Amino acid sequence: MSASLVIGAALLYMAVLFAVAAWGDQQARLGKLPTFSPWVYTLSLAVYCTAWTFYGSVGLAATVGLDFLPIYLGPTLIFLIAPWLIGRMIRVSKDYGITSVPDLIAARYGRSATLAATATLVAVTACVPYIALQLKAVVISVQTLLEPNTWGVDVALVAAIALGLFAILFGTRRVTVSDQRHGIVLAVAFESLIKLFAFLALGLFVTFGLYDGPWALWEAAKAAGTPPLSFAESGAGYANWMLITLLSALAILVLPRQFQVAVVENQDPSHLRTASWLFPLYLLAINVFVLPVALAGRLAGLPNGDTYVLLLPLNADATALTLFVFLGGLSAATAMVIVSSVACGTMIANDIVVPLLLRYGKEKLAEDLSPLLLRIRRLSIVGLLTTAYLFMQNLVFDYGLASIGLVAFSGIVQLAPAVLLGLFWREAQRGGALVGILTGTALWAYCLIVPMIASAGWLDGRLLTAGPFGIEALRPTGLFGLDGLSPVAHALLWSLGANVTCIVLGSLIVQPRAIDRVQAALFLDEDRRDEAPSLVRGDASMGAVRHMLRRFVGAEDERLVVEAASRRLGRPVGDNDDADAEVLRAAERLLGSSIGSASARVVMESVIGRQTLSPVEVMTLLDETSKLVRYSHRLETKSKALEQATAALQEANARLQALDRLKDEFVATVSHELRTPLTSIRAFTEILKDSPDLSLQERQEFLGIVARETARLTRLIDDLLDIAKLEAGELRLELEEQDMRDVVTAAVDASRGLVDAKQLTMNVQLPDKPVPVRVDPDRIHQVILNLVSNAVKFAPAADGRLDLTLAPAERAGSPAWRLSVDDNGPGVPENERDRIFGKFQQATGGDRPPGTGLGLTIARQLVEAFGGALTVDRSPLGGASFRLTLPNYEAVAAAAS
Amino acid sequence: MSLGGRRRLLLFLLGIIAFGYPMAVVIDDLSVPALPLAPLWLFGVWAVLIVFAYRLRKRG
Question: What are phi and psi of A507, to 5 degrees?
Answer without folding.
Answer: -70, -35
